[in-house]
Write a structure and sequence with these properties.
Blueprint lengths: L2 H26 L1 H11 L4 H29 L1 H19 L5 H15 L2 H12 L5 H8 L1 H20 L2 H24 L10 H8 L2 H31 L4 H13 L4 H12 L1 H21 L3 H15 L2 H10 L9 H28 L2 H19 L12 H8 L1
């Protein structure tokens, strides 16, 4: 690649990664705040886990409708809309004083944040050459890893100097500013894509491999985001740590995982995405089960570190496979259909299930159950072939037959 082309790719990737970092952190910052919210609103573990379900339901609806919005205002402007809207919702959440207003605000947070991902992944697909796609996805996946670290650190710092409501207010203002600064770049893009039509949606949904990928993504999101969401409650209620100690452990546990997506993306391009997805899920399931079974704090800390290191390795290869599943010219369609369902399951229903099991037995038992499910999905993934996963639209299929 020419130097100018390479600098454009790297610059664009870093910019999108920065916006994804803000988008992701806005959603996961409620994990380190969960013990405080549980006390302030007098919640049990099941009700606490259901807060993430509300974000997931909003995220589900938003991603499904994102194609209709981006087809009218283009992908870059959709990214601006998502960033500014997410910041605005954080401002509104900072004013919430009742549980029902908090629940409504978290649902709206999912609605605002969900617009970003299909447009962000589409932009990466247009920016990065196909032979480097897994590595491009890996750079983008640095954002959630930084977000996992930044959220508890940010929560800890803010709670030292202000209330959690004031912290959300400042974070929201920063996100709005970032969206406004990105807006001039969005204005330069006139590229529009067609809104999804029934034939294209059917072409994706009729594929068995698409539903298997949805299952694998659900388990991968649970192994990463779902376990992360419930970990502070586990450390406080099951292990007896203070809220401040749990936040620090949560942040430290993700440092070792920070650069793992880059290695996973490189390996995915070299040895195959299927192998990386299966191995990442299997190891994540084993370490999740081990975390649930551990009682001694040193062993708990060991698996708290090891589990996210392998869990995050799924996503570069997973997104590379998934983004190739849509009809030509609509590669983001499979992402728009898969991720909302996967996020609803792995980021919403399963954390709520862990919380319910926590009320009945313990959160550690919830980790044991979900880890077993992740291992089962990993075993299934080794028997699925993704070599020919591109889906043609109906018109292209007719043309090729002719």
């Amino acid at each position: 690649m020419k130097d100018r082309s390479a600098s454009r790719i790297y610059g664009g990737l870093l910019l999108l990664t920065g916006l994804f970092f803000l988008n992701f952190t806005a959603r996961v910052i409620f994990s380190p705040l969960l013990p405080i919210l549980e006390r302030e609103f007098d919640l049990d573990h099941a009700a606490s886990g259901s807060l993430f379900l509300l974000i997931s339901v909003g995220y589900f609806i938003s991603i499904l409708s994102s194609g209709c919005i981006s087809s009218r205002i283009n992908h870059k402007k959709t990214i601006v809309l998502s960033t500014v809207a997410t910041g605005t919702v954080l401002l509104i959440l900072s004013l919430c004083s009742s549980l029902w207003s908090m629940r409504l605000g978290l649902f709206c947070l999912g609605l605002a944040a969900g617009l970003y991902l299909p447009s962000g992944l589409y932009s990466i697909g247009r920016l990065v050459p196909p032979s480097y796609l897994a590595r491009g996805m890996a750079v983008h996946e640095l954002a959630p890893n930084f977000g996992f670290i930044a959220a508890p650190v940010l929560a800890d710092i803010l709670l030292r100097y202000c209330t959690w409501q004031q912290g959300l207010m400042w974070f929201g203002l920063f996100m709005i500013s970032a969206g406004v600064l990105y807006a001039p770049m969005a204005d330069k893009s006139n590229e529009l894509t067609d809104a999804p039509n029934f034939s294209d949606v059917y072409a994706v949904l009729s594929q068995t491999k698409f539903w298997l990928m949805t299952l694998f993504f659900s388990l991968a999101i649970c192994s990463s985001l779902g376990i992360y969401a419930m970990l502070p409650l586990y450390l406080v209620s099951d292990q007896g740590l203070s809220t401040e100690q749990a936040s620090r452990v949560l942040a430290y546990s993700r440092i070792a995982a920070l650069m793992m997506p880059l290695a996973a993306g490189w390996l995915g391009d070299r040895i195959g995405n299927k192998a990386i997805m299966g191995c990442a899920l299997m190891l994540a399931g084993i370490f999740t089960v081990s975390l649930g079974l551990s009682r001694a704090l040193p062993w708990v800390m060991t698996f708290v570190v090891l589990q996210p290191m392998v869990a995050v390795c799924f996503f570069p290869s997973g997104f590379a496979v998934l983004s190739a599943m849509g009809p030509e010219g609509k590669k983001g369609l499979a992402v728009s259909l898969c991720i909302p369902v996967a996020f609803l399951g792995g980021g919403g229903l399963l954390p709520a299930l862990i919380g319910s099991i926590g009320d009945f037995a313990s959160i550690g038992v919830g980790f044991l159950v979900t880890g077993t499910a992740i291992m089962s999905g990993a075993a299934l993934s080794f028997f699925v072939s993704f070599e020919k996963n591109a889906i043609l639209s109906n018109n292209e299929a007719v043309t090729n037959k002719g």
